[in-house]
Write a structure and sequence with these properties.
With 279 residues, the chain is an alpha+beta fold. The chain is built from 3 helices and 14 strands. A 6-stranded antiparallel β-sheet has the order 9-14-11-12-13-10, with no helix packed on it. The radius of gyration is 21 Å and the shape is globular. The model has no long low-confidence stretch (mean pLDDT 91).
Length: 279
Amino acid sequence: MVPAQRTAEQANILGRATARADGFCNQVLRATIDYEQVAGPDYRVTVQNGTGNGRIILSRWPILSIVSVQVAPNAVFPRQWSSIPSGQWDIEVPSIGLLGSIAPAAAIDGGQAIIIPPGWVNWGLGRHGWLVRVQYVNGWPHTSLTSAVTTGATTLPVDDCTGWAITGEWGNTGAAGIVYDSGFQETIQCTGASVTSGPGNLTIASPLNYNHAAGVMTTSLPQSVIDATILFSAAQALQRGATSTTIHAIPGGPGGGSGDPDRLIKTAQGLLNPLRRTI
């Protein structure tokens, strides 16, 4: 196998491992911007007895930012959407270890429900009488450098700006992340982005301490996700015919050297269990 073919197959293994991690968690883990539509009142759209607020449970988490919320009577076609004014909503359980921090928390936090003011959803039209359409940012910002950067740089060219520069519920602007670059690993805190999503430039709060080459991963994903994806990759390599593989040691994990694919997969799934979406 020539080097180009080897590199291509390594990329395929990593892609399959990432898909396996997302599949086990029942959602894409990296930050995405999504539209979601749900009907209620029902178990996912409820009306709080004490406040009259509407509560909407969305599919993906953690919710980092709400872009827009619209409601429409469910029995009316074509749909007649009414937009809730900007800011008239809350994330029920905001992420506290990701935004406005100098480094992402290893602990996993955040929620998948939002709160809207009274009156927009009620029982007046009966069960499933309303449709609610929400655009929101969820997941963990994840990207890689598209070109080399040098010590002292405060702008990072990256392949995906999604989620990095959002404003949190308490005014905390920007997500924290780690630049994974062997012995030159460092943390960053993003304060701005040139685009909302896709390739662009991130502005960081403090100058870089090291040089970094193009392709270096920069992410806010919990370390458990990275470790699990490494284990899935090792299992993929063994399942396609390799006789052994070497992976970095994980406390309580299988260690390095030869491995049993099934054992590697079960260990990876154990690391991802706290991130599984249940609704």
